[in-house]
Amino acid sequence: KRPTSTTPDQRGAGDELHQGVKRGERLTTATGTPLGDGQNSLKVGDRGPTLLEDFAFRDKMFHFDHERIPERVVHARGYSAHGTLECLEAIPDLTRAAPFQRKGQETEAFVRFSTVAGNLGSPDLARDVRGFAVKMYTDEGNWDLVGNNIPVFFIQDATKFPDLVHAVKEEQDRGWPQAQSAHDTFWDFVSLMPESTHMLLWQMSDRTIPRSFRFMEGFGVHTYRFVNADGDDTFVKFHWKPRQGLQSVVWNEALKINGADPDFHRRDLYAAIDSGDLPQWDLGVQVFDEAFADEFDFDVLDSTKLIPEEVLPVRVIARLTLDRVVDNMFAENEQVAFGTHNVIPGIDFTNDPLLQGRNFSYLDTQLKRLGSTNFTQLPVNAPRCPVRHFQRDGHMQTDPQLGRGNYEPNSLSGDDRGPRADVVHGYQSVVRQEQGPTRRLRAESFADHYSQARQFFISQTDVEQQHIVNAFGFELSKVEDPRIRTRVLANLLNVHDDLASGIATVLGVPLPAASEAAVPTRTDLPESAALSIQLNG
Ligand code: HEM
Protein backbone atom coordinates (compact mmCIF):
# COMPACT_ATOMS: atom_id res chain seq x y z
CA LYS A 1 0.00 0.00 0.00
CA ARG A 2 1.15 3.55 -0.68
CA PRO A 3 2.00 5.41 2.53
CA THR A 4 -0.53 8.06 3.50
CA SER A 5 -0.23 11.14 1.41
CA THR A 6 -0.18 14.42 3.25
CA THR A 7 -0.60 17.89 1.89
CA PRO A 8 0.05 21.06 3.88
CA ASP A 9 -3.67 21.74 4.44
CA GLN A 10 -4.35 18.16 5.57
CA ARG A 11 -1.75 18.36 8.27
CA GLY A 12 -3.09 18.88 11.75
CA ALA A 13 -6.70 18.33 10.66
CA GLY A 14 -8.96 16.29 12.99
CA ASP A 15 -7.25 13.52 14.97
CA GLU A 16 -4.34 13.33 12.53
CA LEU A 17 -1.18 15.27 13.17
CA HIS A 18 1.65 15.57 10.62
CA GLN A 19 2.08 12.48 8.41
CA GLY A 20 -0.42 10.13 10.00
CA VAL A 21 0.63 10.64 13.63
CA LYS A 22 -2.49 10.56 15.84
CA ARG A 23 -3.38 12.58 18.95
CA GLY A 24 -3.58 10.90 22.32
CA GLU A 25 -1.57 7.76 21.47
CA ARG A 26 0.03 5.71 24.27
CA LEU A 27 3.80 5.30 24.44
CA THR A 28 4.69 1.59 24.31
CA THR A 29 7.65 -0.75 23.94
CA ALA A 30 8.31 -2.34 20.55
CA THR A 31 6.21 -5.28 21.70
CA GLY A 32 3.31 -3.03 22.62
CA THR A 33 3.51 -2.83 26.41
CA PRO A 34 2.23 0.60 27.48
CA LEU A 35 4.86 2.50 29.45
CA GLY A 36 4.38 4.25 32.75
CA ASP A 37 7.60 6.24 32.43
CA GLY A 38 9.64 6.63 29.24
CA GLN A 39 12.27 9.00 30.58
CA ASN A 40 13.75 7.44 33.68
CA SER A 41 15.47 4.06 33.94
CA LEU A 42 14.68 1.67 36.81
CA LYS A 43 17.13 2.17 39.71
CA VAL A 44 17.68 1.11 43.27
CA GLY A 45 17.04 3.94 45.66
CA ASP A 46 17.52 7.55 44.73
CA ARG A 47 20.90 7.28 42.98
CA GLY A 48 21.18 3.80 41.44
CA PRO A 49 22.60 1.42 40.36
CA THR A 50 20.42 0.83 37.29
CA LEU A 51 18.73 -2.55 37.11
CA LEU A 52 19.21 -5.03 34.26
CA GLU A 53 15.58 -5.91 34.85
CA ASP A 54 14.56 -2.65 33.13
CA PHE A 55 13.20 -4.22 29.94
CA ALA A 56 11.82 -0.88 28.77
CA PHE A 57 15.30 0.68 28.87
CA ARG A 58 16.83 -2.31 27.09
CA ASP A 59 14.10 -2.31 24.43
CA LYS A 60 14.75 1.36 23.72
CA MET A 61 18.56 1.20 23.80
CA PHE A 62 18.80 -2.05 21.83
CA HIS A 63 16.91 -0.54 18.94
CA PHE A 64 18.80 2.74 19.05
CA ASP A 65 22.15 0.92 19.06
CA HIS A 66 21.22 -0.71 15.75
CA GLU A 67 19.67 2.24 13.92
CA ARG A 68 22.38 2.63 11.28
CA ILE A 69 22.72 0.53 8.17
CA PRO A 70 25.67 0.87 5.77
CA GLU A 71 25.40 3.80 3.43
CA ARG A 72 25.44 3.00 -0.28
CA VAL A 73 28.94 2.18 -1.56
CA VAL A 74 28.29 4.90 -4.18
CA HIS A 75 25.44 7.42 -4.47
CA ALA A 76 25.19 7.53 -0.66
CA ARG A 77 23.85 11.07 -0.60
CA GLY A 78 20.40 11.24 -2.18
CA TYR A 79 16.91 12.64 -2.00
CA SER A 80 13.66 11.15 -3.19
CA ALA A 81 10.07 11.84 -4.15
CA HIS A 82 7.02 9.94 -5.35
CA GLY A 83 5.30 10.61 -8.63
CA THR A 84 3.40 9.37 -11.63
CA LEU A 85 4.46 8.47 -15.16
CA GLU A 86 1.81 9.27 -17.76
CA CYS A 87 1.95 7.69 -21.20
CA LEU A 88 1.77 10.37 -23.91
CA GLU A 89 2.18 8.04 -26.87
CA ALA A 90 1.32 4.34 -26.90
CA ILE A 91 4.07 2.29 -28.59
CA PRO A 92 2.91 -1.37 -28.52
CA ASP A 93 4.55 -1.82 -31.94
CA LEU A 94 7.93 -1.25 -30.26
CA THR A 95 7.48 -2.66 -26.77
CA ARG A 96 5.00 -4.56 -24.68
CA ALA A 97 6.28 -2.71 -21.58
CA ALA A 98 3.20 -2.07 -19.43
CA PRO A 99 3.54 1.73 -19.02
CA PHE A 100 3.41 2.37 -22.79
CA GLN A 101 0.38 0.40 -23.96
CA ARG A 102 -2.28 3.11 -23.82
CA LYS A 103 -2.17 6.89 -24.13
CA GLY A 104 -3.08 8.43 -20.78
CA GLN A 105 -2.07 5.32 -18.82
CA GLU A 106 -0.60 6.17 -15.40
CA THR A 107 2.15 4.30 -13.56
CA GLU A 108 3.23 5.07 -10.00
CA ALA A 109 6.89 6.01 -9.71
CA PHE A 110 9.55 6.72 -7.09
CA VAL A 111 12.64 8.76 -7.95
CA ARG A 112 15.92 9.10 -6.07
CA PHE A 113 18.41 11.77 -7.10
CA SER A 114 21.94 11.55 -5.74
CA THR A 115 25.55 12.58 -5.93
CA VAL A 116 27.98 9.74 -6.60
CA ALA A 117 31.18 10.21 -4.63
CA GLY A 118 30.22 12.01 -1.45
CA ASN A 119 29.29 10.31 1.78
CA LEU A 120 25.83 10.52 3.31
CA GLY A 121 26.50 13.88 4.94
CA SER A 122 28.37 15.54 2.07
CA PRO A 123 27.20 18.84 0.54
CA ASP A 124 24.70 18.87 -2.32
CA LEU A 125 26.53 21.12 -4.78
CA ALA A 126 29.68 19.06 -5.29
CA ARG A 127 31.14 18.93 -8.79
CA ASP A 128 29.92 15.40 -9.32
CA VAL A 129 27.72 13.30 -11.54
CA ARG A 130 24.12 13.10 -10.31
CA GLY A 131 22.20 9.84 -10.08
CA PHE A 132 18.67 9.82 -11.53
CA ALA A 133 17.09 6.52 -10.49
CA VAL A 134 13.44 5.85 -11.27
CA LYS A 135 11.38 2.94 -10.00
CA MET A 136 8.16 2.36 -11.91
CA TYR A 137 5.57 0.19 -10.16
CA THR A 138 3.97 -1.26 -13.29
CA ASP A 139 1.17 -3.81 -13.61
CA GLU A 140 3.83 -6.33 -14.63
CA GLY A 141 6.37 -5.73 -11.89
CA ASN A 142 8.84 -3.05 -10.93
CA TRP A 143 10.95 -1.56 -13.67
CA ASP A 144 13.99 0.44 -12.53
CA LEU A 145 15.70 2.86 -14.86
CA VAL A 146 18.87 3.55 -12.87
CA GLY A 147 20.46 6.44 -14.72
CA ASN A 148 22.65 9.50 -14.33
CA ASN A 149 22.45 13.13 -15.45
CA ILE A 150 25.33 12.55 -17.88
CA PRO A 151 24.69 10.40 -20.99
CA VAL A 152 28.01 8.52 -20.89
CA PHE A 153 30.18 6.82 -18.28
CA PHE A 154 33.84 6.72 -17.21
CA ILE A 155 34.57 3.10 -18.05
CA GLN A 156 33.59 0.51 -20.62
CA ASP A 157 33.81 -2.65 -18.56
CA ALA A 158 32.20 -3.35 -15.18
CA THR A 159 35.31 -4.95 -13.79
CA LYS A 160 36.91 -1.47 -13.65
CA PHE A 161 34.11 -0.11 -11.44
CA PRO A 162 35.67 -0.93 -8.04
CA ASP A 163 38.92 0.75 -9.21
CA LEU A 164 37.06 3.82 -10.42
CA VAL A 165 35.15 4.15 -7.18
CA HIS A 166 38.22 3.61 -5.01
CA ALA A 167 39.92 6.39 -6.96
CA VAL A 168 36.92 8.72 -6.71
CA LYS A 169 36.07 8.22 -3.05
CA GLU A 170 37.94 9.91 -0.19
CA GLU A 171 41.56 8.77 -0.09
CA GLN A 172 41.96 5.82 2.25
CA ASP A 173 44.95 7.21 4.13
CA ARG A 174 43.44 10.67 4.66
CA GLY A 175 39.66 10.45 4.66
CA TRP A 176 39.22 13.37 2.27
CA PRO A 177 37.91 14.80 0.04
CA GLN A 178 34.37 13.68 0.80
CA ALA A 179 32.61 15.23 -2.10
CA GLN A 180 34.87 16.44 -4.86
CA SER A 181 37.13 15.06 -7.48
CA ALA A 182 39.99 17.49 -6.81
CA HIS A 183 42.53 14.99 -5.62
CA ASP A 184 45.42 12.84 -6.75
CA THR A 185 43.79 9.41 -6.76
CA PHE A 186 40.94 10.46 -9.05
CA TRP A 187 43.20 12.27 -11.51
CA ASP A 188 45.79 9.51 -11.36
CA PHE A 189 43.16 6.95 -12.35
CA VAL A 190 41.62 8.95 -15.19
CA SER A 191 45.03 9.93 -16.52
CA LEU A 192 45.76 6.22 -16.91
CA MET A 193 42.33 5.44 -18.41
CA PRO A 194 41.84 7.28 -21.71
CA GLU A 195 38.36 5.79 -22.03
CA SER A 196 37.25 8.15 -19.24
CA THR A 197 38.08 11.25 -21.33
CA HIS A 198 34.61 11.82 -22.79
CA MET A 199 32.93 11.58 -19.38
CA LEU A 200 35.65 13.79 -17.92
CA LEU A 201 34.72 16.56 -20.34
CA TRP A 202 31.09 16.38 -19.23
CA GLN A 203 32.16 16.27 -15.59
CA MET A 204 34.26 19.42 -15.93
CA SER A 205 31.39 21.19 -17.71
CA ASP A 206 28.57 23.14 -16.08
CA ARG A 207 26.42 19.99 -16.23
CA THR A 208 27.82 18.60 -13.02
CA ILE A 209 26.71 21.46 -10.81
CA PRO A 210 22.99 21.62 -11.56
CA ARG A 211 21.02 24.47 -10.02
CA SER A 212 18.76 21.83 -8.53
CA PHE A 213 17.58 18.32 -9.27
CA ARG A 214 14.60 19.89 -11.04
CA PHE A 215 16.81 21.45 -13.71
CA MET A 216 18.80 18.47 -14.90
CA GLU A 217 18.42 15.78 -17.52
CA GLY A 218 18.54 12.05 -16.90
CA PHE A 219 19.93 9.27 -19.11
CA GLY A 220 19.71 5.50 -19.03
CA VAL A 221 23.24 5.61 -20.56
CA HIS A 222 23.32 2.01 -21.81
CA THR A 223 21.67 0.75 -24.93
CA TYR A 224 18.74 -1.39 -23.80
CA ARG A 225 16.21 -3.35 -25.86
CA PHE A 226 12.53 -2.81 -26.44
CA VAL A 227 10.64 -6.04 -27.21
CA ASN A 228 7.10 -6.13 -28.60
CA ALA A 229 4.41 -8.78 -28.12
CA ASP A 230 5.64 -10.66 -31.21
CA GLY A 231 9.12 -10.92 -29.74
CA ASP A 232 10.61 -8.39 -32.19
CA ASP A 233 13.29 -6.27 -30.57
CA THR A 234 14.97 -2.93 -31.23
CA PHE A 235 17.71 -1.03 -29.47
CA VAL A 236 16.65 1.86 -27.24
CA LYS A 237 18.31 4.61 -25.24
CA PHE A 238 16.30 6.44 -22.56
CA HIS A 239 16.31 10.19 -21.83
CA TRP A 240 14.61 12.32 -19.17
CA LYS A 241 14.12 15.95 -20.29
CA PRO A 242 13.25 18.45 -17.53
CA ARG A 243 10.22 20.55 -18.44
CA GLN A 244 11.64 23.23 -16.13
CA GLY A 245 14.60 23.58 -18.53
CA LEU A 246 18.26 22.90 -17.95
CA GLN A 247 20.08 25.17 -15.48
CA SER A 248 23.36 25.04 -13.61
CA VAL A 249 25.25 27.24 -11.21
CA VAL A 250 28.85 28.32 -11.69
CA TRP A 251 31.58 27.06 -9.40
CA ASN A 252 31.77 30.17 -7.22
CA GLU A 253 28.03 30.02 -6.63
CA ALA A 254 28.28 26.32 -5.79
CA LEU A 255 30.98 26.99 -3.20
CA LYS A 256 28.91 29.68 -1.51
CA ILE A 257 25.73 27.61 -1.53
CA ASN A 258 27.56 24.56 -0.15
CA GLY A 259 28.81 26.69 2.72
CA ALA A 260 25.52 28.41 3.44
CA ASP A 261 23.20 25.45 2.89
CA PRO A 262 24.71 22.03 2.19
CA ASP A 263 21.13 20.67 1.88
CA PHE A 264 20.24 23.10 -0.91
CA HIS A 265 19.13 20.49 -3.44
CA ARG A 266 17.09 18.55 -0.90
CA ARG A 267 15.40 21.68 0.32
CA ASP A 268 14.67 22.82 -3.24
CA LEU A 269 12.94 19.59 -4.24
CA TYR A 270 10.92 19.39 -1.03
CA ALA A 271 9.87 23.05 -1.24
CA ALA A 272 8.82 22.79 -4.89
CA ILE A 273 6.64 19.73 -4.35
CA ASP A 274 5.30 20.92 -1.01
CA SER A 275 4.17 24.21 -2.53
CA GLY A 276 2.51 22.51 -5.50
CA ASP A 277 5.14 23.56 -8.07
CA LEU A 278 5.42 19.98 -9.28
CA PRO A 279 8.57 19.15 -11.28
CA GLN A 280 8.11 17.26 -14.54
CA TRP A 281 10.30 15.40 -16.98
CA ASP A 282 9.49 14.08 -20.43
CA LEU A 283 10.62 10.51 -20.99
CA GLY A 284 12.06 10.19 -24.48
CA VAL A 285 13.62 7.36 -26.42
CA GLN A 286 16.09 6.92 -29.25
CA VAL A 287 15.03 3.73 -31.00
CA PHE A 288 17.23 2.09 -33.65
CA ASP A 289 18.14 -1.25 -35.15
CA GLU A 290 21.35 -3.23 -35.80
CA ALA A 291 21.75 -1.79 -39.30
CA PHE A 292 21.62 1.78 -37.95
CA ALA A 293 24.04 0.84 -35.16
CA ASP A 294 26.49 -0.63 -37.66
CA GLU A 295 26.79 2.72 -39.45
CA PHE A 296 28.68 4.26 -36.53
CA ASP A 297 32.45 4.01 -36.09
CA PHE A 298 31.88 3.43 -32.40
CA ASP A 299 30.01 0.62 -30.70
CA VAL A 300 26.50 1.23 -29.34
CA LEU A 301 27.41 -1.26 -26.59
CA ASP A 302 30.13 1.13 -25.38
CA SER A 303 28.83 3.26 -22.50
CA THR A 304 31.47 5.93 -23.09
CA LYS A 305 29.60 6.90 -26.27
CA LEU A 306 26.27 8.56 -27.01
CA ILE A 307 24.13 8.70 -30.11
CA PRO A 308 23.92 12.40 -31.07
CA GLU A 309 20.37 13.70 -30.85
CA GLU A 310 20.95 15.55 -34.13
CA VAL A 311 21.47 12.19 -35.81
CA LEU A 312 18.63 10.40 -34.00
CA PRO A 313 16.13 12.77 -32.37
CA VAL A 314 14.64 11.88 -29.01
CA ARG A 315 11.01 10.79 -29.30
CA VAL A 316 8.92 11.74 -26.24
CA ILE A 317 6.59 8.94 -25.08
CA ALA A 318 5.70 9.74 -21.46
CA ARG A 319 5.79 12.40 -18.76
CA LEU A 320 6.91 12.02 -15.16
CA THR A 321 5.42 14.30 -12.49
CA LEU A 322 6.78 14.30 -8.94
CA ASP A 323 3.88 15.08 -6.64
CA ARG A 324 4.63 13.74 -3.17
CA VAL A 325 7.55 14.22 -0.81
CA VAL A 326 8.79 11.27 1.23
CA ASP A 327 7.17 10.65 4.61
CA ASN A 328 10.22 9.01 6.13
CA MET A 329 13.75 9.43 4.79
CA PHE A 330 15.00 6.15 6.16
CA ALA A 331 12.05 4.00 5.08
CA GLU A 332 11.98 5.43 1.59
CA ASN A 333 15.21 7.21 0.58
CA GLU A 334 17.59 4.85 2.40
CA GLN A 335 15.77 1.55 2.03
CA VAL A 336 14.81 1.88 -1.60
CA ALA A 337 16.66 -0.70 -3.68
CA PHE A 338 17.14 0.15 -7.35
CA GLY A 339 18.77 -2.22 -9.80
CA THR A 340 19.26 -2.45 -13.54
CA HIS A 341 18.20 -6.09 -13.29
CA ASN A 342 14.65 -5.04 -12.32
CA VAL A 343 13.03 -5.22 -15.75
CA ILE A 344 9.56 -6.10 -16.99
CA PRO A 345 8.26 -7.81 -20.13
CA GLY A 346 9.08 -5.53 -23.06
CA ILE A 347 12.47 -4.38 -21.68
CA ASP A 348 15.64 -6.42 -22.18
CA PHE A 349 19.40 -6.04 -21.95
CA THR A 350 22.16 -5.78 -24.50
CA ASN A 351 25.73 -7.06 -24.29
CA ASP A 352 27.06 -3.72 -22.98
CA PRO A 353 29.74 -5.07 -20.61
CA LEU A 354 29.06 -2.30 -18.12
CA LEU A 355 25.34 -3.04 -17.99
CA GLN A 356 25.92 -6.75 -17.57
CA GLY A 357 28.20 -6.12 -14.58
CA ARG A 358 25.66 -3.76 -13.06
CA ASN A 359 23.01 -6.44 -13.32
CA PHE A 360 25.10 -8.46 -10.87
CA SER A 361 26.22 -5.66 -8.57
CA TYR A 362 23.01 -4.03 -7.33
CA LEU A 363 21.31 -7.12 -5.95
CA ASP A 364 24.59 -8.21 -4.42
CA THR A 365 25.26 -4.94 -2.61
CA GLN A 366 21.68 -4.62 -1.40
CA LEU A 367 21.84 -7.92 0.42
CA LYS A 368 24.63 -6.40 2.49
CA ARG A 369 23.24 -2.88 2.74
CA LEU A 370 19.68 -3.78 3.62
CA GLY A 371 20.64 -6.86 5.56
CA SER A 372 18.04 -9.35 4.41
CA THR A 373 16.95 -11.26 1.36
CA ASN A 374 13.43 -9.98 1.96
CA PHE A 375 14.04 -6.27 1.24
CA THR A 376 11.71 -6.53 -1.76
CA GLN A 377 8.88 -6.67 0.79
CA LEU A 378 9.65 -3.21 2.21
CA PRO A 379 6.83 -0.84 1.23
CA VAL A 380 9.02 1.33 -1.03
CA ASN A 381 10.31 -1.73 -2.89
CA ALA A 382 7.17 -3.86 -2.93
CA PRO A 383 5.51 -4.18 -6.33
CA ARG A 384 1.98 -2.79 -6.63
CA CYS A 385 0.92 -5.80 -8.72
CA PRO A 386 0.23 -9.33 -7.41
CA VAL A 387 3.36 -11.22 -6.28
CA ARG A 388 3.39 -15.01 -6.15
CA HIS A 389 6.41 -17.29 -6.05
CA PHE A 390 7.89 -20.16 -4.07
CA GLN A 391 10.53 -18.19 -2.17
CA ARG A 392 10.15 -18.66 1.55
CA ASP A 393 11.59 -17.82 4.96
CA GLY A 394 14.80 -15.83 5.38
CA HIS A 395 15.44 -12.89 7.68
CA MET A 396 12.55 -10.48 8.23
CA GLN A 397 9.99 -12.46 6.28
CA THR A 398 6.73 -10.55 6.49
CA ASP A 399 4.91 -11.91 3.46
CA PRO A 400 4.78 -15.69 3.89
CA GLN A 401 3.54 -17.49 0.81
CA LEU A 402 0.47 -19.62 1.44
CA GLY A 403 -0.39 -23.23 0.62
CA ARG A 404 1.20 -26.61 1.24
CA GLY A 405 2.90 -27.17 -2.11
CA ASN A 406 5.84 -24.81 -1.88
CA TYR A 407 7.76 -25.90 -4.96
CA GLU A 408 7.34 -26.10 -8.71
CA PRO A 409 5.81 -28.16 -10.19
CA ASN A 410 3.38 -29.35 -7.57
CA SER A 411 -0.05 -30.95 -7.69
CA LEU A 412 -1.09 -30.10 -4.13
CA SER A 413 -1.91 -26.45 -4.70
CA GLY A 414 -4.24 -27.28 -7.57
CA ASP A 415 -4.19 -25.56 -10.94
CA ASP A 416 -6.38 -22.75 -9.77
CA ARG A 417 -4.24 -21.95 -6.72
CA GLY A 418 -0.60 -22.43 -7.50
CA PRO A 419 1.36 -19.91 -9.52
CA ARG A 420 2.30 -21.12 -12.97
CA ALA A 421 4.80 -19.60 -15.38
CA ASP A 422 2.95 -18.07 -18.32
CA VAL A 423 4.79 -19.03 -21.48
CA VAL A 424 2.85 -16.54 -23.62
CA HIS A 425 2.61 -13.45 -21.41
CA GLY A 426 5.43 -14.00 -18.92
CA TYR A 427 8.92 -12.52 -19.32
CA GLN A 428 10.88 -14.15 -22.12
CA SER A 429 14.44 -13.08 -22.83
CA VAL A 430 15.06 -12.04 -26.42
CA VAL A 431 16.37 -14.93 -28.52
CA ARG A 432 19.94 -14.01 -29.43
CA GLN A 433 22.66 -15.80 -31.35
CA GLU A 434 25.96 -15.51 -29.48
CA GLN A 435 29.21 -17.12 -30.51
CA GLY A 436 32.96 -16.63 -30.42
CA PRO A 437 35.97 -17.61 -28.36
CA THR A 438 36.07 -16.52 -24.72
CA ARG A 439 38.44 -13.58 -24.34
CA ARG A 440 39.10 -10.57 -22.16
CA LEU A 441 40.32 -8.21 -24.87
CA ARG A 442 37.97 -5.44 -25.85
CA ALA A 443 36.75 -5.20 -29.41
CA GLU A 444 38.38 -2.70 -31.75
CA SER A 445 34.99 -0.94 -31.90
CA PHE A 446 35.59 0.20 -28.30
CA ALA A 447 38.95 1.82 -29.14
CA ASP A 448 38.23 5.47 -29.98
CA HIS A 449 38.29 7.45 -26.73
CA TYR A 450 38.61 10.99 -28.04
CA SER A 451 36.25 11.76 -30.98
CA GLN A 452 33.11 12.26 -28.90
CA ALA A 453 35.06 14.13 -26.22
CA ARG A 454 36.20 16.52 -28.97
CA GLN A 455 32.66 16.84 -30.34
CA PHE A 456 31.41 17.69 -26.88
CA PHE A 457 34.06 20.37 -26.37
CA ILE A 458 33.44 21.92 -29.78
CA SER A 459 29.68 21.93 -29.21
CA GLN A 460 30.04 24.23 -26.20
CA THR A 461 29.78 28.02 -26.39
CA ASP A 462 32.90 30.11 -25.72
CA VAL A 463 31.77 30.77 -22.16
CA GLU A 464 31.04 27.11 -21.55
CA GLN A 465 34.41 26.11 -22.99
CA GLN A 466 36.10 28.58 -20.65
CA HIS A 467 34.20 27.05 -17.72
CA ILE A 468 35.52 23.63 -18.72
CA VAL A 469 39.08 24.95 -18.95
CA ASN A 470 38.73 26.69 -15.58
CA ALA A 471 37.27 23.57 -13.96
CA PHE A 472 40.17 21.41 -15.18
CA GLY A 473 42.58 24.13 -14.07
CA PHE A 474 41.07 24.40 -10.61
CA GLU A 475 40.83 20.66 -10.01
CA LEU A 476 44.32 19.92 -11.35
CA SER A 477 45.79 22.75 -9.30
CA LYS A 478 44.87 20.68 -6.21
CA VAL A 479 46.76 17.64 -7.47
CA GLU A 480 50.01 17.24 -5.54
CA ASP A 481 51.91 14.94 -7.90
CA PRO A 482 53.02 16.94 -10.99
CA ARG A 483 53.41 13.75 -13.09
CA ILE A 484 49.64 13.22 -12.90
CA ARG A 485 48.95 16.73 -14.19
CA THR A 486 51.36 16.19 -17.06
CA ARG A 487 49.65 12.94 -18.08
CA VAL A 488 46.20 14.53 -17.99
CA LEU A 489 47.35 17.46 -20.13
CA ALA A 490 49.05 15.15 -22.61
CA ASN A 491 45.87 13.06 -22.88
CA LEU A 492 43.79 16.17 -23.46
CA LEU A 493 45.96 17.12 -26.45
CA ASN A 494 44.09 14.27 -28.12
CA VAL A 495 40.84 16.15 -27.54
CA HIS A 496 41.61 19.74 -28.54
CA ASP A 497 44.67 21.99 -28.54
CA ASP A 498 42.67 24.91 -27.11
CA LEU A 499 41.55 22.77 -24.21
CA ALA A 500 45.00 21.51 -23.29
CA SER A 501 46.75 24.85 -23.80
CA GLY A 502 43.99 26.74 -21.94
CA ILE A 503 44.40 24.48 -18.92
CA ALA A 504 48.19 24.73 -19.06
CA THR A 505 47.84 28.53 -19.01
CA VAL A 506 45.50 28.41 -15.98
CA LEU A 507 47.97 26.13 -14.23
CA GLY A 508 51.00 28.15 -15.33
CA VAL A 509 52.80 25.06 -16.61
CA PRO A 510 54.28 24.29 -20.04
CA LEU A 511 52.25 22.14 -22.41
CA PRO A 512 53.68 18.59 -22.40
CA ALA A 513 54.36 16.58 -25.55
CA ALA A 514 51.56 14.26 -26.66
CA SER A 515 53.94 11.34 -26.10
CA GLU A 516 53.74 11.98 -22.37
CA ALA A 517 50.22 10.56 -22.34
CA ALA A 518 50.30 7.54 -20.09
CA VAL A 519 48.63 4.71 -21.92
CA PRO A 520 48.86 3.88 -25.59
CA THR A 521 45.45 4.49 -27.14
CA ARG A 522 45.43 0.96 -28.54
CA THR A 523 42.81 -1.10 -26.73
CA ASP A 524 43.55 -4.30 -28.60
CA LEU A 525 46.10 -4.96 -25.87
CA PRO A 526 45.19 -6.38 -22.50
CA GLU A 527 45.46 -3.63 -19.91
CA SER A 528 48.38 -5.36 -18.21
CA ALA A 529 50.32 -5.21 -21.48
CA ALA A 530 49.39 -1.58 -22.01
CA LEU A 531 50.55 -0.68 -18.55
CA SER A 532 53.78 -2.60 -18.94
CA ILE A 533 54.44 -0.67 -22.13
CA GLN A 534 53.91 2.48 -20.17
CA LEU A 535 56.10 1.41 -17.29
CA ASN A 536 58.85 0.12 -19.57
CA GLY A 537 58.62 3.15 -21.77
C1 HEM B 1 24.13 2.98 -7.17
C2 HEM B 1 27.18 -0.28 -8.90
C3 HEM B 1 27.49 2.11 -13.06
C4 HEM B 1 23.78 4.79 -11.64
C5 HEM B 1 24.99 1.93 -7.25
C6 HEM B 1 25.29 1.03 -6.19
C7 HEM B 1 26.14 0.12 -6.68
C8 HEM B 1 26.40 0.44 -8.05
C9 HEM B 1 26.76 -1.06 -5.94
C10 HEM B 1 24.72 1.10 -4.79
C11 HEM B 1 23.34 0.49 -4.83
C12 HEM B 1 22.69 0.34 -3.50
O1 HEM B 1 23.38 0.32 -2.47
O2 HEM B 1 21.46 0.21 -3.48
C13 HEM B 1 27.51 0.07 -10.18
C14 HEM B 1 28.40 -0.66 -11.04
C15 HEM B 1 28.50 0.04 -12.19
C16 HEM B 1 27.67 1.19 -12.07
C17 HEM B 1 29.07 -1.97 -10.69
C18 HEM B 1 29.32 -0.25 -13.43
C19 HEM B 1 29.75 -1.42 -13.70
C20 HEM B 1 26.48 3.00 -13.06
C21 HEM B 1 26.06 3.74 -14.20
C22 HEM B 1 25.01 4.49 -13.80
C23 HEM B 1 24.76 4.23 -12.40
C24 HEM B 1 26.65 3.64 -15.61
C25 HEM B 1 24.16 5.39 -14.62
C26 HEM B 1 23.71 5.04 -15.81
C27 HEM B 1 23.58 4.54 -10.31
C28 HEM B 1 22.62 5.23 -9.50
C29 HEM B 1 22.72 4.72 -8.21
C30 HEM B 1 23.75 3.72 -8.26
C31 HEM B 1 21.65 6.32 -9.96
C32 HEM B 1 21.95 5.18 -7.00
C33 HEM B 1 20.65 4.42 -6.89
C34 HEM B 1 19.87 4.95 -5.71
O3 HEM B 1 19.52 6.14 -5.75
O4 HEM B 1 19.62 4.18 -4.78
N1 HEM B 1 25.70 1.56 -8.38
N2 HEM B 1 27.07 1.18 -10.83
N3 HEM B 1 25.68 3.31 -11.98
N4 HEM B 1 24.24 3.62 -9.53
FE1 HEM B 1 25.61 2.40 -10.18
UniProtKB/TrEMBL annotation:
<comment type="similarity">
    <text>Belongs to the catalase family. HPII subfamily.</text>
</comment>
<keyword id="KW-0408">Iron</keyword>
<feature type="active site">
    <location>
        <position position="148"/>
    </location>
</feature>
<dbReference type="GO" id="GO:0004096">
    <property type="term" value="F:catalase activity"/>
</dbReference>
<dbReference type="GO" id="GO:0046872">
    <property type="term" value="F:metal ion binding"/>
</dbReference>
<keyword id="KW-0479">Metal-binding</keyword>
<keyword id="KW-0575">Peroxidase</keyword>
<feature type="binding site" description="axial binding residue">
    <location>
        <position position="362"/>
    </location>
    <ligand>
        <name>heme</name>
    </ligand>
</feature>
<feature type="compositionally biased region" description="Basic and acidic residues">
    <location>
        <begin position="12"/>
        <end position="26"/>
    </location>
</feature>
<keyword id="KW-0376">Hydrogen peroxide</keyword>
<dbReference type="GO" id="GO:0005829">
    <property type="term" value="C:cytosol"/>
</dbReference>
<comment type="function">
    <text>Decomposes hydrogen peroxide into water and oxygen; serves to protect cells from the toxic effects of hydrogen peroxide.</text>
</comment>
<feature type="binding site">
    <location>
        <position position="161"/>
    </location>
    <ligand>
        <name>heme</name>
    </ligand>
</feature>
<feature type="compositionally biased region" description="Polar residues">
    <location>
        <begin position="1"/>
        <end position="9"/>
    </location>
</feature>
<keyword id="KW-0349">Heme</keyword>
<feature type="region of interest" description="Disordered">
    <location>
        <begin position="1"/>
        <end position="45"/>
    </location>
</feature>
<feature type="region of interest" description="Disordered">
    <location>
        <begin position="393"/>
        <end position="420"/>
    </location>
</feature>
<dbReference type="GO" id="GO:0006979">
    <property type="term" value="P:response to oxidative stress"/>
</dbReference>
<feature type="domain" description="Catalase core">
    <location>
        <begin position="28"/>
        <end position="416"/>
    </location>
</feature>
<feature type="binding site">
    <location>
        <position position="112"/>
    </location>
    <ligand>
        <name>heme</name>
    </ligand>
</feature>
<dbReference type="GO" id="GO:0020037">
    <property type="term" value="F:heme binding"/>
</dbReference>
<dbReference type="GO" id="GO:0042744">
    <property type="term" value="P:hydrogen peroxide catabolic process"/>
</dbReference>
<protein>
    <recommendedName>
        <fullName>Catalase</fullName>
        <ecNumber>1.11.1.6</ecNumber>
    </recommendedName>
</protein>
<feature type="binding site">
    <location>
        <position position="369"/>
    </location>
    <ligand>
        <name>heme</name>
    </ligand>
</feature>
<feature type="binding site">
    <location>
        <position position="72"/>
    </location>
    <ligand>
        <name>heme</name>
    </ligand>
</feature>
<feature type="active site">
    <location>
        <position position="75"/>
    </location>
</feature>
<keyword id="KW-0560">Oxidoreductase</keyword>
<feature type="binding site">
    <location>
        <position position="358"/>
    </location>
    <ligand>
        <name>heme</name>
    </ligand>
</feature>
<feature type="compositionally biased region" description="Polar residues">
    <location>
        <begin position="28"/>
        <end position="42"/>
    </location>
</feature>
